[in-house]
Amino acid sequence: MTEPASVARIVVLISGSGSNLQALLDAAVDPAYGAQVVAVGADRDGIAGLDRADAAGVPTFVERVRDHDTREDWDRALTAHVAKHQPDLVISAGFLKLVGPHFLAAFGDRYLNTHNTLLPAFPGIHGPRDALAYGVKLTGATLFFVDAGMDTGPIVAQVAVPVLDDDDVDALTERIKEAERRQLVEQVGRLVREGWTITGRKVTVP
Ligand code: GRF
Predict the structure, then answer these.
(1) Which UniProt keywords are listed (predicted)?
(2) Binding residue per annotation — 99?
């Protein structure tokens, strides 16, 4: 079992607007939440999420794949950068890169991702678009521990969101994101305060 820390250290990885990051930053203001965001990492510059971290006084770093000779070098550099902050939990919140074996060896039992569909349906970066095109009536968001696959790891929690008749991709994406942020804050708090066990595909919180 991964035991709870007194105040858990969280590193958040982002590639975009960072609204999930913001939800965590806001929750962590309350000491009773049980976690603080100690660093924010990104795979690109110039994104709103990095400004959110700056505004909250949280240190940031950027590791771009193209600044490294190989993807493996990038994976090592990202791993080293995250490790410096000694995280109890690493959260991919809209981070648009699959990490490699070095990262998973270091953080595989404590690396969470939030995805904007009900997995295993519609993995990948166009989840809401694919769900809408398929015509499902119910979709949602999934929080899971990352493994070596794409959106395939053990599931921590899921929240369902209805698809409305007049939805377009933007409207559906936004409705999912609201539920997704609530779920992320709630479940991360629960994990850091109570600890967790991963047995095969099953995640349990005592
Ligand atoms: C989230 O909906 C996540 O599921 C998807 O990208 C979105 C990130 O949004 N992969 P934000 O950057 O946290 O606003």
Answers:
(1) Purine biosynthesis, Transferase
(2) yes
Tell me the per-residue pLDDT of 131-163, one tens digit each, with 9 for 90 and over.
999 999 999 999 999 999 999 999 999 999 999
Residue 110 CA, ligand 1 centroid: distance in Å = 19
Nearest ligand 1 atom to alpha carbon 115:
4
pLDDT at 69: 98
SS3 74: helix
Tokens at residue 83, please? Answer: 């490790």
β-bridge mates for residue 139, sequence order: 161
pLDDT tens figures, 66-113: 999 999 999 999 999 999 999 999 999 999 999 999 999 999 999 999
For the packed helices 127-134 and 169-194, what is the interaxial angle rounded to 10 degrees? 120
Residue ranges of the domains in the chain?
Answer: 8-197
Residue 177 exposed, middle or buried by CB count within 10 Å (0-12, 13-18, 19+): buried
- CA 178 distance to own-chain centroid: 15
* Spatial distance between the Cα atoms of 156 and 166, rounded to a whole number of angstroms: 31
| Fold (CATH) for 8-197 | Rossmann fold (3.40.50)
The residues annotated as belonging to the active site are 115
Which two three-digit tokens encode residue 18? 């960072």
